[in-house]
Amino acid sequence: NVTVYGLLDLGLQKSNGDARSATWRNGPADKAWNLAQSKGSRLGFRGSEELGGGLSAQFQIEHRFNPDTGAQNNATSFWSGRAFVQLTSKDFGAVYLGREYAPQYFVAVKTDPFGQDGVGQFSSRAYANFQSKGDNGARTNNTVGYKSPKLGGLSAQVAVSLGEGSTSRETGFNVEYASGPLYVAGAYARQDQGAVGTASNSGDGSTLVLLAAHYDFGVIKPVVQYSRSELGPTGNLKNDFWLVGATAPLGAAVLKAGYARFDPSGANNLQQKIAVGVDYFLSKRTKLYADLAVSKQKGTISGGNYGDYRAFAVGYQHNF
Amino acid sequence: NVTVYGLLDLGLQKSNGDARSATWRNGPADKAWNLAQSKGSRLGFRGSEELGGGLSAQFQIEHRFNPDTGAQNNATSFWSGRAFVQLTSKDFGAVYLGREYAPQYFVAVKTDPFGQDGVGQFSSRAYANFQSKGDNGARTNNTVGYKSPKLGGLSAQVAVSLGEGSTSRETGFNVEYASGPLYVAGAYARQDQGAVGTASNSGDGSTLVLLAAHYDFGVIKPVVQYSRSELGPTGNLKNDFWLVGATAPLGAAVLKAGYARFDPSGANNLQQKIAVGVDYFLSKRTKLYADLAVSKQKGTISGGNYGDYRAFAVGYQHNF
Amino acid sequence: NVTVYGLLDLGLQKSNGDARSATWRNGPADKAWNLAQSKGSRLGFRGSEELGGGLSAQFQIEHRFNPDTGAQNNATSFWSGRAFVQLTSKDFGAVYLGREYAPQYFVAVKTDPFGQDGVGQFSSRAYANFQSKGDNGARTNNTVGYKSPKLGGLSAQVAVSLGEGSTSRETGFNVEYASGPLYVAGAYARQDQGAVGTASNSGDGSTLVLLAAHYDFGVIKPVVQYSRSELGPTGNLKNDFWLVGATAPLGAAVLKAGYARFDPSGANNLQQKIAVGVDYFLSKRTKLYADLAVSKQKGTISGGNYGDYRAFAVGYQHNF
Fold first, then answer.
1. Among C137, C185, C183, C181, residue whose Cα is nearest residue C161
2. Interface test with A, best of C79, C168, C193 (most A CBs within 10 A)
3. Which partners does chain B have (≥3 C-beta pairs < 8 Å)?
4. pLDDT at residue C231, rounded to an integer
5. CB contacts < 8 A (A, B)
6. What would the pLDDT profile of C107-166 be if each residue is shown by its tens digit?
7. CB-based contacts of A75: which residues, under 8 Å, 6+ apart?
8. Which of A117, B117, C150, C254: CA 20 to 30 A from A176?
9. Chain centroid to CA C238
10. pLDDT score recorded for residue B305
């Protein structure tokens, strides 16, 4: 009644070494050849138990690590991927408790042509700097959440990450519609109750709106994302993020491309990133990949200035 | 030949926030709603091999973690639950080496109506402040131990936790008798050879005696525990602990209740705790629970003063 | 598609307590009885997937821990044993990425009569102080490697451990020939590109040559090892290591014995170690063992002086 699963991903990465800011830099900080992972390597355990009457119990714990050194990825959280326990009703949906992806993540990851992995990913700005609760907006600790069943293609998730008296509370939800080739979804998140964070990227009353869609034409699947955050106690920082991209199958390969622009509060500042890549599947579980990304900046951006950053990666990923 | 097992437990806990001392406070330190576990969440691996001639080999390693954040529970010991290897003879019993529960734990856990879990548990004082070797008296590192086979309901365990030149050695044993509805047991532990510890709660020559019993009438199972520690090099601190409680099945539920008093050395000082709770089993492996506990103190207690502490928890536990 | 494997090893170890240097001291630093492991206790996960056309994918991650306390063995690397992903062609060999044993390890471990385990092992000097990349020369992080298929008993491994701009790069290879009772092998390693390390034991341009062989006569299997390191930017330190030993099966037991001498740069300095031991197999997976080692030193040795050191261990090992 326990399934062991995971993946290892490693490849060679090289960049132009412009490491003035870690933001929107999904690659090495130096010019040297680096052995690094594109997707987070993991070992997980999950299981499900039928309780009768349409009820079932689930759990999932997922460890993240760096296979180039064997070190755990998150020094303070061994099970940094996921750690939750869930009670599911077939008709009424699931309640879960623990550390889990935030509602906005599930929308964003499905509409990033790179799946939020590797040098080409757009995750760093996908939440428009709404990132107070750690993990760059993707996950929250101390979460009580609800996932609805699918009703005619429609589903929803609601989550509250408790502040527990010392950090700000994060509340969020998403609504997703998936029917045939069409996927369209929205997510909202809000932080409250905290003096935690600074005006620039978090704090009491900060909000995020994220809208995204993709349509699978078969030969190509275009994706689009838009997110807007209003940050700080008075919502005085307004940041906008746009992403357009596409994936396209080509035999055993999948081509990936995307362009994104992040326009934060303030005049004359803009970040842009363009990325292309290809996955070559040796099997359903194992692939080779090559990704290339270029990002540019104009003006001053909260969270650090940097110049032009270029990186590429060729790698190997095995799922088990 | 390897069994993977574990459990995840999480629930909402709330207290009156009187956190003047961590002792006998099995709940949040603040008034905020907290997502927290009642029983220690774990992932374990164990196995057994037949060696022939009535001999067999066993191992068990058990990791403890906090599913609300994904962090390991014990920062210095990943396998903080158990980590031992064992050689068993069917006729003569088992020798084990490693980190394992101390003899007094097995007696105490069976006679705590809350199973030493959650806000209602009495484990904090169950060893009457005999707690020098860490883990609140429940486990010891560097242990060579012996577990007898069951002879007509009678069994025994002996353990020596080596001091290894830098910490005090702990020696202990238990004798348990279980026959039909009756369970009666005693345990003894002693620390030696150490300048380690302070007079108040450990040190050379400290001893513990623990006596406990329960009787299963079917409709109710009353339990009783008594422990006495004599602490410090000269045994000058004498602490007494009493617990009475009961569990009672009620359909798919089990009711739990207990009252304990801890009377440490010194005049006019006393701690009391009363707790009630209910487990509702969705299956053998999965349950909901609600627990409530109130503790009070009179006078000065070694290990920290505190006022009245109240906490309750509602939660969900899934075993796999 | 995932295999869970591992071992636990624990026993009692005692030494004369001469702990002036950790080098070549494979036992307790004090005179007390210690509960300690001889072989590194581990929990591992590995798997393989057929990709078709003679290709296959493998992964392996191996955690090391100390079962006497439950702590992870390497504080900065949870998967300190191995962590790599591999793509294998039946005809052309395997490319692997990650943290893996260095080429010199595979030769040395096969020709150490104690398998580089316990108080009797010779691993501490087996690489003649060529040990810059951590793990005493046995493993390297950030490694891109190749393992050839076996061609008429001949096989080879090549590995590059990337410096990634901050540590020295290590390059190495081995060639092994195994046919019937004969095994003969050589390994070479070199560090480059680094200002890292000191003249005494590492640094730019340091090299290692290791040659070893064993021959299995059935009643006895003699082994011999020779290694030479030239250390420092100018190769000004030349260290020599010799090992002769043998293992011999005797019913369910295996006798082990070895003698080694380490003659580092400089006049009138020499370390010698002699060790004997016996393994008694309760099954293929489970054994008891007893080992005894004595080491002596003359003169001043880089890496710390020490006097005579003696240690013995009796223990129990269970593989799963």
1. C137
2. C79
3. A, C
4. 83
5. 113
6. 999 999 999 999 999 998 999 988 656 566 789 999 999 999 999 999 999 999 998 888
7. none
8. A117
9. 21
10. 57
Out of C70, C282, C320, name the one closest to residue B78 (CB). Answer: C70
Q: At CA A226, angle to CA A220 and CA A232, rounded to 5?
A: 155
Q: Which of B4, B79, B85 sits opposite C4 (nearest CB)?
A: B4
Q: Which residue numbers of C have CB closer than 8 Å to B's CBs?
A: 4-6, 8-12, 28, 30-35, 43, 65, 67-72, 78, 282-283, 285-286, 316-318, 320
Q: Is pLDDT of A12 > 60?
A: yes
> Which of these ranges, A127-141, A161-175, A179-193, C233-247, has the smallest mean pLDDT?
A127-141
Q: Which CATH code is given to the segment(s) C12-319?
A: 2.40.160.10
How do residues C183-221 score in pLDDT, each as one tens digit? Answer: 999 999 998 865 544 444 455 788 999 999 999 999 999
pLDDT confidence of residue A199: 42
Q: Supply the ipTM of this predicted assembly.
A: 0.94
Whether A78 has a pLDDT exceeding 60, the answer reads yes
Pick the CATH number of A7-319 from 3.40.50.720, 3.40.718.10, 3.40.309.10, 2.40.160.10: 2.40.160.10
- Helix extents (H) in C79-211: 103-110, 123-126
User: Which segments of C103-262 does DSSP mark as H helices, in order?
Assistant: 103-110, 123-126
Task: Kindly report the nearest CA distance between residue C1 and chain B, in angstroms.
Answer: 15
- Determine the Cα–Cα distance for residues A297 and A309; give it in Å rounded to an integer: 9
Within 8 A of C320 by CB-CB distance, chain B residues are 1-2, 47, 49, 59
- The pLDDT value recorded for residue B297 is 85
pLDDT tens, position by position, A235-274: 678 999 999 999 999 999 999 999 999 998 888 889 999 9
Q: Best interface-test mutation with C: which of A9, A78, A286, A314 has the largest number of C CBs within 10 A? A: A286
Task: Give A271-282 pLDDT, tens digit per residue.
Answer: 999 999 999 999
Q: What is the pLDDT of residue C196?
A: 45
Residues on C contacting A at a C-beta cutoff of 8 Å: 1-2, 4, 45, 47, 49, 51-52, 55, 57-59, 61, 74, 76-85, 87, 97-99, 141-144, 162-166
Find the helix or strand (DSSP H, E) in which B109 lies.
Answer: helix B103-110
pLDDT at C91 > cutoff 60: yes
What residues of chain B score a pLDDT lower than 70? 19-23, 131-136, 193-203, 233-235, 301-306
Residue A195 above 60 pLDDT?
Answer: no
Is pLDDT of A23 > 70? Answer: no
Cβ contact, residue pair C85, A43, below 8 Å: no
User: Out of 3.75.10.10, 2.40.160.10, 2.40.50.100, 1.20.1300.10, which CATH number does the structure's domain B3-319 have?
Assistant: 2.40.160.10
Q: Which residues of A touch B285 (CB under 8 A)?
A: 49, 57
Of A135-144, B76-85, C33-42, C253-262, the least confident: A135-144
The whole-number average pLDDT for the span C254-265 is 95
What is the spatial distance between Cα A179 and Cα A189, in angstroms, rounded to a whole number? Answer: 25
